[in-house]
Design a protein that fits this description.
heterodimer, A: 208 residues, five-stranded parallel beta sheet, 9 helices, 5 strands, elongated, B: 597 residues, Beta-Lactamase, Heat Shock Protein 90, six-stranded antiparallel beta sheet, 47% helix, 22% strand, rod-shaped
């Protein structure tokens, strides 16, 4: 198991359970941070690293499912592994529909929990990666001039330089220069790659 | 007044030959003798021809009716006597002439001292041709006898009225020990005595059969019947089952123990719901066993349907050795009524008790379900920690250089959690063990603390601010621990539920127990006050009804069960809306007499 900077948050009102979970995760080199109540968790500033939440459904104050709803707007969403002393099927379905990674009934097998936690962290890492990439693409796009943005929009629709020049009422040479500049700024190796980037940034017109 | 009485058959026959000999010419001596007889007889003797003309009257006739032989001869009655009397005499004569046989009449005559009554034998006289030519009459004055009879009848009537009006019991028994007369006071005394026995019997906790047996025995004892039996309809109302038998037979089994509704006497009574009386048992086809009736001297039968508001709850039958008067039958009807009411009440009580038992059973189940969820959580929590720590231990030990201090911490935690789980189990066991013992002196304060120990999670989960005010000087109450725990748990759960959606104020829950203010001897007052949604005053009556609930997921049984538990402990449970928010549920339980909790 990788010993990176990832972290597991635990919310359980039972002191013994918090300690045992922290200890178990520690044996596979996972860092854990435990909280007694959801409020305590919400009040704590969390490091920006791959993470997940091991959450007891039945909690004092805000319940586990309530907290899941409250955290739903986070970007990226926090990956949750539910644990419960007595879960029923509707509760499980509700949690999984709302995006929970897994739903474990106490007492659970250690490997089951560790797998679920690892899966959740991986999902979070991927999500963070994708989010970081999108941020980077957006930064590159924002570095383009107004003219370059006009050119890129026409390039990705498949127009030739001559056609673009006609549409922008400029020379073909000028278009060519803009095009080279934006390909460099966007770090695109080919038009195909530029199309993919444009798609992720939402630059492509909706296709009928 | 004329009254005809037929004569006996031997008197009826007329010997024509002898009559003929009577009309032959008598000799002098015979005639003188006959005249002597006629004139010395105390009877009124007369002879009239077919047209009603007098031929002869004797001296007594002359003397009594103030007529002379010479005057009356050849005359008809209407020429001598007042018209209405004369008409009656003639009518009687014509009957005899017509029938040709002797007859007896009561004829009225007017004498010096007023009207007299004569018993007159009238007979036809037949001539040689066999034709009736005259009627003879021999009258006996029965005025005195008649007067005596009337006096006796008047006297009897007088005594009868006296007896019937008397509040005292008057019974007349003949030499054979048979009852020949009872006055109505006797019947009303009898039914009052039996009804007293009936109410005593029904006041006991005995089985219905034992109660009805006591009733039947009372009927036999006070009404002196040969046999009294009580039947009740079976489950499907198609047969009657013998429940009680007193008198000649006291065995309930055998062929007479069941009777189909609609057949034989009891069945007909049950079907038609009417009293059935058989006065003459020996000659009535409805009594099949005549030999039995003769042997036992049974002469009358009466069967009364036992009715409560038109519904049949049984049949009461009696066999009697004396005839049954209307008064006696009416008295028996009152007894039947009392027994019917008793049966209906007993049935209602039994139904109520089984409903209570069912409610208590359901209460136990629902509370157990709630408890087991709580217990499951309490036990699962340490077990889950134990398993997780155990897993962590194995992983720690599996490494090349085991972290000894971390492993030790894990094992210590395991031991601590195992003890925690054992404590929960012990607590549950204690709870269940105590539940075996019904009705013992209890400290309600401690009982409430025990229940509160079960709900801290619920309290925390719903962010309830719990306040307790449990007095230290509570007198012990006598009760079933688990049932009263159910009540407290139910009231707490209700209070918590009622505050579930409250967001604009503190979710305050106050539970208090103290000596009852009004009457310290009355016991302990427990109050559970919430700041929840409360209830409309209009729905106050409905609150305790089974299946009434304001909760979307409630079964609506809790309050009804709680109330029945408190009632069965001799206490009261009620609810009042608070002045500001929510409601207060309170109950009072009487203090135990024994002061050793």
């Amino acid at each position: 198991m990788s010993a990176d900077d990832s972290i597991v948050f635990i919310i359980d009102d039972d002191q013994s359970m918090r300690d045992a979970l922290t200890r178990l995760l520690g044996t596979v080199g996972l860092r854990a941070q435990a909280f007694e109540t959801p409020q305590e968790f919400l009040n704590t500033k969390r490091p920006d690293t791959p993470s997940c939440l091991v959450l007891d459904v039945r909690l004092p104050g805000l319940s586990g499912l309530d907290l899941q709803r409250e955290l739903a707007d986070l970007d990226p969403p926090i990956q949750i592994v539910f644990i419960t002393a007595h879960g029923d099927i509707p509760m499980t379905v509700q949690a999984l529909k709302a995006g929970a990674v897994d739903f474990l009934t106490k007492p659970f097998r250690d490997q089951q929990l560790l797998d679920a936690v690892q899966h959740a962290i991986d999902r979070d890492r991927t999500a963070r990666h994708q989010r970081a990439r999108l941020v980077e693409l957006r930064r590159r796009y924002e570095s383009l001039t107004q003219r370059e943005r006009e050119v890129i929009t026409l390039v990705v629709t498949g127009l030739l330089n001559k056609q673009i020049a006609a549409q922008l009422r400029t020379s073909e040479a000028t278009v060519k220069a803009h095009r080279a500049q934006l390909m460099r700024k966007m770090e695109a190796q080919s038009v195909a790659q530029l199309v993919t980037i444009a798609e992720r940034l939402g630059l492509l017109p909706l296709r009928g | 007044m004329t009254h005809r009485r037929p004569l006996g058959p031997n008197q009826r026959r007329t010997d024509a030959a002898r009559q003929k000999s009577d009309v032959r010419e008598p000799d002098q001596a015979e005639e003188a003798l006959a005249r002597e007889i006629l004139n010395n007889s105390a009877n009124l003797i007369s002879l009239k021809d077919a047209e009603g003309r007098y031929l002869l009257v004797n001296r007594q006739f002359e003397k009594t009716l103030h007529v002379r032989q010479e005057q009356i001869k050849g005359k008809k009655d209407d020429e001598i006597f007042p018209p209405e009397l004369a008409a009656a005499f003639r009518a009687n004569d014509l009957q005899v002439l017509d029938a040709g046989v002797p007859m007896e009449f009561e004829e009225a005559t007017l004498q010096d001292d007023g009207p007299h009554t004569c018993l007159v034998q009238k007979f036809p006289l037949v001539n040689v041709e066999g034709k009736v030519y005259a009627t003879g009459g021999i009258g006996t004055d029965i005025t005195e006898r008649k007067r005596a009879e009337q006096a006796l009848r008047a006297s009897e009537e007088h005594y009868r009225l006296l007896c019937e009006g008397a509040a005292d019991v008057v019974i007349s028994i003949n030499e054979g020990g048979q009852l020949v007369f009872v006055n109505p006071a006797t019947d009303s005394a009898r039914q009052a005595l039996v009804r007293a026995d009936v109410s005593v019997a029904f006041a006991t906790k005995d089985s219905l059969q034992a109660i009805l047996q006591a009733c039947a025995e009372s009927v036999v004892r006070h009404f002196e019947t040969a046999l009294a039996r009580i039947w009740t309809p079976g489950k499907d109302h198609d047969v009657l089952e013998l429940q009680a038998s007193a008198g000649l037979y006291t065995v309930l089994g055998g062929i007479h123990s069941r009777g189909p509704v609609g057949f034989v006497n009891i069945g007909l009574i049950a079907k038609e719901r009417k009293r059935l009386v058989i006065d003459d048992v020996m000659n009535d086809p409805r009594i099949p066993d005549k030999a039995w009736a003769r042997n036992e001297g049974v002469t009358a039968f009466a069967g009364h349907p036992l009715l409560v508001r038109d519904s049949l709850v049984g049949v009461m039958t009696i066999f009697s050795r004396s005839s049954l008067t209307t008064k006696t039958l009416d008295a028996l009807a009152l007894v039947a009524d009392a027994i019917a009411q008793g049966i209906a009440q007993k049935r209602a009580e039994e139904a109520w008790q089984s409903r209570q038992a069912e409610l208590a059973r359901v209460a136990r189940l629902t509370t157990m379900a709630a408890l087991s969820a709580s217990i499951a959580h309490e036990v699962t929590q340490p077990l889950a920690a134990i398993v997780t720590n155990g897993d962590a231990c194995l992983r720690l030990l599996a490494s090349d250089r085991p972290n000894v201090s971390e492993t030790r911490n894990a094992v210590a935690s395991i031991i601590r959690d195992a003890r925690r789980a054992a404590d929960v189990v012990a607590r549950v066991r204690a709870l269940l063990k105590k539940s075996d013992v019904a009705r013992m002196p209890l400290d309600l304060g401690q009982l409430i603390r025990d229940v509160l120990a079960l709900v801290p999670r619920e309290v925390a989960r719903h962010r309830i601010v719990l306040q307790t005010s449990l007095a230290n000087d509570l007198p012990p109450v006598l009760g079933d621990r688990i049932q009263l725990q159910q009540v407290v748990l139910n009231l707490l759960t209700n209070a918590i539920e009622a505050m579930r959606d409250v967001v604009d104020r503190r979710r305050e829950l106050v539970i208090s127990a103290r000596r009852h203010d009004v009457d310290p001897e009355a016991g302990v007052l427990v109050a559970v006050q919430d700041a929840g949604v409360g209830f409309e005053r209009a729905s106050l009556d409905q609150l305790f009804e089974v299946l009434y609930t304001t909760k979307p997921d409630g079964l609506g049984m809790g309050l009804s069960i709680s109330r029945s538990i408190i009632l069965s402990h001799g206490g009261r449970l009620w609810a009042t809306p608070n002045a500001d928010y929510g409601a207060t549920f309170q109950f009072v339980l009487p203090a135990s007499r024994s002061q050793t909790p």
